[in-house]
Amino acid sequence: MDERNPKKENMSIEEALQKYGSIIWNGKGVSMKPLIRDSVDYAVIERADREIKPYEVVLYARDIYVNDGTAPERKYVLHRVLKKDGDTYVILGDNCVNYEYVPADKIVGIMTGLVRKRKPYDFDGKGYKAYMNLWVKPYKVRKEITRARFIAKAAGRKLIKGIKRIGK
What we know:
By secondary structure, the chain is α+β, with helices and mostly antiparallel strands. Helix content is 31%, strand content 31%.
């Protein structure tokens, strides 16, 4: 078996983190935009074996149940922790509007790095600090801006669809 390629060993993300301590993860989706770009950037994920701080990005397991009686399908989500409430974390993606309440035992890893254009992203740089202060930390305002943007996009799609119908 290949010691450096857990995919060849057919192991879960949790098993890979347990065995190797960290993984490089290329997730799909837009929930962490603009920080993480869909299928372009790579997140460095380390095993979640320490206390998670507010505003850290975590990887957690979400079990999706289907109605055909089969076992749940496990999906992995990379979102940001806002705060801890007992044994539950309040989590929100940087491009999302709905809070998630994730039990501590569902968190499998913590993002400790990001690779963009084959170079490590600087979490200590001015750009990231500005992003944190202007977009991430005022998350209540950001939620409303993001919600308004989603509503405007939906209205624009409906308008264009209506114009196309009139033109036929």
